[in-house]
Write a structure and sequence with these properties.
homodimer, 0% strand, Tetracycline Repressor, domain 2, mainly alpha, DNA-binding
Chain lengths: 191, 191
DNA sequence: GTCTATATTCCGATAGAC
DNA sequence: GTCTATCGGAATATAGAC
């Protein structure tokens, strides 16, 4: 991994761990064993680094998208949810949730880049849900976009809320999302 | 409103607008027409101010709780969701989402105070859902705590995600949460 | 209670040598 | 590409006068 890639990777981890306004160039520099000023060689300012992080997340999302494109909708959704579960295990949150929380402190470009990425994710999830419904794999009684919003907010919010409760709460949320889409629901006693 | 109360109120607004690590004592001081140092008279440090904000949110939550205690579960839930809708209109997010995003930069006490508040909200929502089910006002097929987690993450995450899309998306989310609990669902065509 | 003044630390950023 | 050195600014916090 190049220095540039390492910087982006670390910035991403720091943003999703501590928040955009809490991490510093020095945090990255000390980990990489370089100096503060070297980061400015790759990124003129914090804004450009932030945007690079968003673009990298978008790139990785598209890699996932392609990797599961031929699979069943249920499996696509499970792969998607799994990336959040992995994030939960790291005690981090997702990039959209982290930067949306700090939105009013970000440059316009950063906010636009983030909004673009969020819409990418929503629209992909919409197509997965739509396909699942057509195939009879999914059942849901609200508009597709609404269902997509509900699922994403469950995952995004779940990463944050369950930092305050227990990790298990997140896995319960993720499993429930998938179970509730199943057309064959075994209705059990629930206490 | 006393100076102390004004400070807490402004800190709350700033935390939910810009984030804990982005607001400064000066932001509050200039609005109140006082000096930086005066805030330290009321709160020794930022940590104590942050905790006071959480406690005030908890107090106001309990006021709401008492105000709707005699009403039907559906109306209690609607009043709860309405506070989030009002927050959405201000372009802010909820205190739990904001501080949970910054959790790893907060003092232990602040984190504990926040976790306590989050659990208060979850448990109250559980009792409302449970009552609604007993009365036949609500239908849901997952454990009560799970349903509470799903609803709260929809609202918490909705405030953040819809900063990037449109305000209407949030209202759709909030309305859908309530509609989906209704035992008499008119299943319409959904595209 | 509120002020002035200041201490201290940290951060993003830049100039210029190597 | 990476460094040293430094600038300018901002933030939390404290001491002490009024």
């Amino acid at each position: 991994m190049s220095t540039r890639e390492s910087i982006i990777h670390l910035a991403d981890q720091l943003i999703r761990d501590q928040g955009y306004n809490a991490f510093s160039f020095y945090d990255i520099a000390k980990t990489l064993g370089i100096k503060n000023a070297s980061i400015h060689y790759y990124f003129p300012g914090k804004t450009q680094l932030g945007i690079a992080v968003i673009k990298e997340q978008s790139r990785r999302f598209n890699v996932l998208k392609q990797a599961v494109a031929d699979k069943r909708p249920a499996e696509q959704l499970r792969a998607f949810a799994h990336t959040y579960a992995a994030t939960r295990q790291e005690e981090r949150i997702c990039i959209v949730g982290s930067l949306a929380s700090d939105l009013h402190t970000l440059d316009t470009e950063t906010g636009q880049s983030l909004a673009l990425f969020a819409e990418e994710v929503i629209e992909w999830l919409e197509t997965v849900l739509e396909q699942g419904k057509k195939l009879g794999d999914f059942t849901f009684a609200v508009p597709t976009r609404t269902k997509a919003l509900l699922i994403i907010t469950n995952l995004l919010g779940g990463l944050q809320l369950t930092r305050l409760t227990q990790p298990q709460d997140f896995y319960t949320i993720a499993e429930t999302i998938i179970q509730e889409l199943s057309p064959v629901q075994i209705k059990e006693n629930n206490t």
